[in-house]
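Dear support,

I submitted the protein below through the web form. The confirmation email said the job was done, but the results page showed an empty box. After a refresh the structure appeared. I'm attaching both so you can tell me whether what I see now is the final result or a partial one.
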Amino acid sequence: MKKATNVRRKSTGAALMIALLAAVVVMMAATLLISLTRRMVDSHLDRLNNAQISLSESSAADGLSLLLSQRGPGAANGDLHFDLAGVSTEFSLVETGTAGVRNGFFPLDNVFSAVVVPAGSHLVTLQGTGDSSVQVTFFSGDTFNPTTQFTIETDMRPVAGTPFVFHGEEAVIAVFEGAGITYLACFTSDGIQAGTVVDSDIYRSGSMISAGEAPDGSPLLIVTGGSNLGAVFNCETGEFSHVGSPGGTCPVFLSDGTMFGSVQQSFPSFGGAHIEDVFGGDFNNDGIADMAFATRFSLSVYSGATHEIIKAGPGGSLVSWGSVEGRTGLCGMWKMPSGDIRWLRLAYDGFTDFNPDMVYELGWQGRFTGRGNTLTGVIDGSAVIASSTGYILELLTGDVFTGNADGGEIDFFRIADNGVEACFNPVNGDGIQMTFSTQNSYRGKTTPGETYIYSIYESEGRLSVYHTLEGLGR
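What the results page shows now:
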């Protein structure tokens, strides 16, 4: 009898121990769940708070633009304090100076045979000399003078070129055609680094090209007709592989040198509109480069962080698109079949409708870019800069194209009768420049904000003001 009693006591003790352990596990799980929930709620609240701060600060920056346009630079001596939607934004003057739209001119002997490639801090030109050779010139984006010049002995003519970074140096891959063959040449300011003959029909008018490096350091060139299928060529060996990407995109080298697309995965041919524009940027503000693709009907974004593709295609024709840092971010304007205009911008959970400022509705054609309340792009065939305060300036007229030839922001170019006209970093403006730092107080917490650069113009008896962002504070 005692033995049976001892067994029951042991069984009861074991059951109590198991129940106790189970209770501990449940309590730990509940504690972890509560902690996780609290972190998720706090994270969500932080995002909401940051979004409200960003919106209020942006509106306050517009308010300061209006104040400066009414009172001039002397307004900076007063109390620059704005209270909007519970957020208190204070501006502090950091420095003043002058700002100017910097224009330049790059002379060419034969513009009709020239290929012009903005390549980082240089403008690279290739032009036939008429004596079985092509002259390659690296112009400085600062002085507009040639820094390097050499000649390629060939009967072929240059038809296209694209910039990239080759072994840490600014470089160009150029496409030459002639005598029924195509030649690809990779060169830096030190001369030709690699070259190869490939099939004669790889490049056609309207083809899109981009360059990068293979894992072994060989220069590579992607050629596509604007669809999601193309070919990637090794400029040392002449070998090529078919490359594809998801529908609504095209194979391309990203800004960090990696290739978007795959030579191993098979993609069905995308029967929609061809890609008209490809450009990079950090569109979701996560610090990782993304890529945007525009067709006649859609605007798609490839996330460098998640590798997801987010697409907007509301059913109309995509008329203009671009990214405005510190304001709308990536956005586009569609003309719907009904004739209505619809604007969409990239948000946390995809593209969403928004009502744009008047500066967005000036008739932009193709891609625009900007910061703060200032946009630059093409209107009626001319490169212009405009701000929400009513300032507008025509930069270049005619057949303009964009690139970067001075290591700064986007530049505009136009081929003239005897050379290339350039307008550098137009968002830097022309006039008085004032730099302000900001801090925001919201719900008992004060945090640093963005740094804003204001350019003040005097035109036709009145002041016009626009502002841009110097850097991201959050």
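Response: this is the final, complete result; the empty box was a page-load delay. The mean pLDDT is 85.
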